[in-house]
Amino acid sequence: MYTGPWIKMRKTPESSERQREGPIVTLMHDDAVTRELGFMGGFVGGPSLEGVMAAAIPASFGHHWYEGGAHSVRIFRPVYAEEEVRVAWDEIKPDPGDKRKIQYRLEKKNGERVAAGWAALGQSVEKLAAPWERDVSSAGETGDDVLPEIPIGAKYAPLEQTASREMVDDLLDRVQDTNWWYRIASPWGAPLIPPYFFGTMILRYTVESDKDRRMMDDTLPLWMYAGLDIMVYRPAFIGQPYRFEGHVCQKGRTARSVYVVRECNISGADNTPVARARFRGTLLQLPQKV
């Protein structure tokens, strides 16, 4: 078993101001809103939690993972600002098509587990199996027609995004990630987009759509970042444009929430596939007034 350092989590200074500049962000980071819903305060964002966990990937696999790797994360309990968490991981038996595989968890100092996942290094890109191909519960079916306004198969218009140096540094600083491949240079030359930053970009892509904008009304459910499954085919670089194109592939209910899963293909400027991912969002009901 390996463990990373204890990281004191921080939130971005989000508020309930709807007129602020920048991308849409959920109000689940806002202390006043979440306390009305019975929580201790605003949640630390899912990409930040995933960022702490993902430190296990280069520590275990080195640079090879960025040329044919997969990982899966599920977040199941909130983490609040100033709480300390760490990642713990160990090697497990690889699946067919894998060269190596690890499992990891995110834990608080009291031993509470708040998230869990795994990462795999493929024998080759061609042999690597997607996370949703390994778990039949992630295949894409739904138990009932929840959220009929978001039908299975609904497509989102393509969106070009570029991960800027400032955007990536903000997240790196929050999770205290000092990997110089993301900040200075990588084995391929230019600094890389951290794999967990794709979650931020996919979240921005989905909430920028007209369908998701309708879900941002105070009387309707609100997205929460609940997990990400991703296959990485080749490195992606800070400052370069990438095309995101996706659709709704699954939705349903759990005992405590409603969820929607969106699949997203990420490609470079020359249409070369870079990654394929599935973003899992759960929904909570906001109070009528915030």
Offer a few descriptive terms.
290 residues; alpha+beta; Thiol Ester Dehydrase, Chain A; eleven-stranded antiparallel beta sheet; globular
**What profile does the largest beta sheet have?**
11 strands, antiparallel
**Relative strand content:** 25-35%
What is the average of the pLDDT values? Answer: 83
Can you name the CATH architecture? Roll
In angstroms, what is the radius of gyration?
18 Å
- Name the helicity range: 10-25%
| CATH fold topology | Thiol Ester Dehydrase, Chain A
- State the fourth-level CATH superfamily: Hotdog Thioesterase
TL;DR?
19% of the residues lie in helices and 33% in strands. Residues 15-25, 215-221 and 286-290 have low confidence and may be disordered.
Q: How would the blueprint of this fold be written?
A:
Elements: E1 2-3, E2 7-8, H1 31-36, H2 46-54, H3 56-61, E3 69-75, E4 84-92, E5 98-108, E6 113-122, H4 131-134, E7 155-162, H5 165-175, H6 180-183, H7 197-207, H8 210-214, E8 221-232, E9 241-253, E10 258-267, E11 273-285
Helix pairs in contact: 2-5
Describe this protein's structure.
The protein is α+β, with helices and mostly antiparallel strands and 290 residues long. The chain has one domain: Thiol Ester Dehydrase, Chain A. 19% of the residues lie in helices and 33% in strands. The protein is built from eight helices and eleven strands. β10 (258-267) and β11 (273-285) form a beta hairpin. The protein is globular.
